């Protein structure tokens, strides 16, 4: 497999807008469909959502999907048909396994302030597993200045949350100006800038909402030029084999 680096700029994403939601989609989603942009590696969905105060997604179904949520600001209230409920806030990672079938709702927990969060979907290794839910607060010191696995199904990773896919892991990092990290080498890698500005070695500047899709990556260096946060999916397989 040849090594490739594909930059996807924030302004080029699909956008869904309603009276209470602004959702920016890195991949085909809902009414937005491009057959050439359905996934990268094992990652099917990377939605950057802003939900208005006291609004949100009413109860709806999911099946056979690992859904990871990372809040950037505000608070998101979760409730599902297995009895799990709680409020997700910045630094608290969440994984919901839809498995054989689950109903859930996601609402802005604040009556006055919007909530912004990234929601990411990958397929599980097995279909029809029991629905499940896991959340864990990630220590800010662990995220600061280093790339930390927060959700992983890969052996050898000391991640806070388990993913039901043995070939995928999500890392996060918060970087101050001039601080850098090396991305993990992997057959498939997805880098997403949640905020701030960084420089990708050999490529150039990346800004909030920009993404990079790597194949056969041997580990690139990134450096922040202003306070920044990144999410990185490391994947050792792709859909279909």
TrEMBL record:
Record carries keyword Thylakoid: no
Classification via Gene3D superfamilies: Jelly Rolls
GO MF assignments: dioxygenase activity
Listed SUPFAM superfamilies: RmlC-like cupins
Keywords: Dioxygenase, Oxidoreductase
Domain of life: Bacteria
InterPro entries the record matches: Pirin, Pirin_N_dom, RmlC-like_jellyroll, RmlC_Cupin_sf
Cited CDD domains: cupin_Yhhw_N
PANTHER family (alphabetical): QUERCETIN 2,3-DIOXYGENASE (PTHR43212)
Family membership: Belongs to the pirin family.
Name the UniProt record assigns to this protein: Putative quercetin 2,3-dioxygenase
Lineage of the organism: Bacteria, Bacillati, Actinomycetota, Actinomycetes, Mycobacteriales
